[in-house]
């Protein structure tokens, strides 16, 4: 079989080489004497006669392109008049000019390529020296005109060998099926079984088969894979058991941390209460006000990305620390009966700064986290007002953190509802009217409009929370 292919390839090369020589000879014969005639016409400057000569030769079916170049690669004559006076650089033309070659041929009929470049030299009758190049004739042959002859001889060759080659091929194929393809099919089927998870599959064979050694190795490999699979299953079972224990420990530890955080928050909140015993259950009520506002607003386009479930829990828990800064206010001001002086009120306003600073110190020790970030924002900004009239920075609108806007509403409502040594408690209806209509000190423009609308819808729930956590001394 190999001999047939080699013979076919060799004969095909002989045909191509023969016809390539025939094409070269025919093109060279056509160009014979052309350079002499063009040399004389160039010497006279008779470009019209050169053009007629070129067009006549270009009319042959086997001529695709014929051009006459000057020494600057400019076309002075062509069977395509549109090319005249253009510069179309051809490598073999350039070589003839640079190297003063007699002829330069670039041919490969398999690639349908045949190009010839012939120098135009001076003659005894011309002004130029006979060794000087005056220009170059370039021809590109139309090889398709020769393909018919080549195909005819190739067809005869193929028919001669096709029958004997086919018979031999059939015999070889039958041998291959028995010796190679059947064992390969066994291996292929076995691989499919193993890939489907059957690690106990074994190929049945006899020692005289081709690929017997390979099949034996395959069976040995499958046994090792099966053993390793059993080991991995045992390891997986142990890991799952250990993971279950670890997950349980992580859950227990997480619960302990959450409980510790809650205890810490409550302890700090109680600490603030002990300094200002009139606030009582204020921190418990306000965190619940904050929760219902946050839950109501979480689907609003302005708040949906901020008020997710995780953030709501963090905001609600950190809301208990909104007045932690009052720990830093002197008792003479914090517990004063009667109206505060201007200076005393300015000192009282500093509780938001003291609260922020105490949480900043905690961050330096514990590292920044979401809980402390919300606690810091609430402690520092819950007295800011939407219209910018609040303190400590006079922030307005969206510059006020959302958590602080929620806390502001919760803080004002609870302050209005609670009895203080400097005022009596308002009824729920009075508190709602003051928040939504204003009384001079508290105005609706102090609140985020969306938060205010939520309060209007939820005010009955605010009342329920207030009644659920009454003051201890009430």
TrEMBL record:
* Record carries keyword Transmembrane: yes
Q: Which residues form the HAMP domain?
A: 178-230
- Does the UniProt entry include the keyword Magnesium? no
Q: Keywords in UniProt for this one? A: Coiled coil, Membrane, Transmembrane, Transmembrane helix
Name the CDD domains for this protein: HAMP (cd06225), HDc (cd00077)
List, alphabetically, the PROSITE patterns matched.
HAMP, HD_GYP
Entry protein name = HD domain-containing protein
- Per UniProt, residues of the HD-GYP domain are 257-471
Could you list the residue ranges forming a coiled coil in this record? 222-256
Q: Which PANTHER family match?
A: CYCLIC DI-GMP PHOSPHODIESTERASE TM_0186-RELATED, CYCLIC DI-GMP PHOSPHODIESTERASE VC_1348-RELATED
Looking up InterPro entries in the UniProt record yields:
Cyclic_di-GMP/3'3'-cGAMP_PDE (IPR052020), HAMP_dom (IPR003660), HD/PDEase_dom (IPR003607), HD_GYP_dom (IPR037522), Sensor-like_sf (IPR029151)
UniProt-listed SMART domains? HDc
TM annotation in the entry: 161-181
What lineage is this protein's organism placed in? Bacteria, Fusobacteriati, Fusobacteriota, Fusobacteriia, Fusobacteriales
């Amino acid at each position: 079989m190999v001999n047939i292919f080699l013979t076919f390839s060799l004969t095909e090369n002989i045909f191509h080489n023969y016809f390539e020589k025939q094409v070269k000879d025919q093109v060279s014969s056509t160009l014979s004497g052309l350079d002499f005639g063009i040399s004389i016409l160039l010497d006279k400057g008779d470009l019209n006669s050169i053009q007629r000569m070129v067009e006549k030769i270009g009319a042959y079916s086997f001529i695709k392109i014929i051009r006459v170049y000057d020494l600057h690669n400019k076309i002075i004559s062509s069977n395509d008049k549109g090319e005249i006076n253009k510069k179309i650089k051809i490598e073999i033309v350039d070589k003839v000019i640079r190297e003063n070659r007699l002829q330069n041929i670039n041919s490969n009929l398999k690639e349908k390529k045949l190009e010839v470049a012939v120098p135009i030299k001076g003659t005894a009758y011309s002004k130029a020296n006979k060794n000087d190049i005056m220009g170059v004739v370039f021809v590109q042959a139309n090889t398709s005109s020769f393909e018919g002859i080549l195909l005819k001889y190739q067809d005869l060759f193929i028919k001669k060998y096709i029958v004997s080659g086919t018979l031999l091929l059939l015999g070889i194929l039958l041998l291959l099926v028995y010796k190679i393809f059947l064992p390969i099919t066994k291996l292929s089927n076995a691989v499919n079984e193993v890939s489907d998870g059957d690690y106990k599959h074994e190929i049945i064979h006899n020692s005289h088969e081709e690929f017997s050694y390979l099949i034996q190795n395959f069976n040995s490999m499958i046994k090792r894979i099966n053993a390793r699979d059993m080991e991995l299953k045992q390891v997986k079972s142990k890991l799952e058991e250990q993971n279950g224990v670890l997950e349980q420990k992580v859950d227990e530890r997480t619960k302990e941390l959450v409980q510790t955080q809650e205890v810490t928050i409550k302890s700090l909140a109680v600490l603030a209460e002990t300094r200002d015993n009139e606030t009582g259950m204020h921190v418990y009520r306000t965190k619940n006000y904050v929760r219902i506002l946050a839950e109501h607003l979480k689907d609003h386009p302005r708040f949906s990305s901020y008020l997710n479930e995780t953030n709501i829990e963090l905001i609600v828990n950190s809301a208990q620390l909104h007045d932690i800064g009052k720990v830093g206010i002197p008792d003479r001001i914090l517990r004063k009966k009667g109206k505060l002086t201007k200076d005393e009120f300015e000192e009282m306003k500093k509780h938001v700064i003291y609260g922020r600073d105490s949480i900043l110190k905690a961050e330096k020790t514990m590292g920044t986290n979401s809980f402390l970030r919300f606690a810091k924002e609430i402690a520092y900004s819950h007295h800011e007002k939407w219209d910018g009239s609040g303190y400590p920075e006079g922030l307005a609108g969206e510059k006020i953190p959302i958590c602080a806007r929620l806390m502001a509403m919760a803080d004002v409502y609870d302050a209005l509802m609670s009895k203080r040594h400097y005022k009596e408690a308002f009824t729920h209806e009075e508190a709602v009217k003051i928040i939504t209509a204003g009384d001079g000190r508290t105005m609706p423009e102090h609140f985020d409009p969306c938060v205010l609308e939520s309060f209007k819808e939820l005010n009955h729930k605010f009342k329920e929370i207030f009644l659920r956590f009454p003051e201890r001394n009430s």
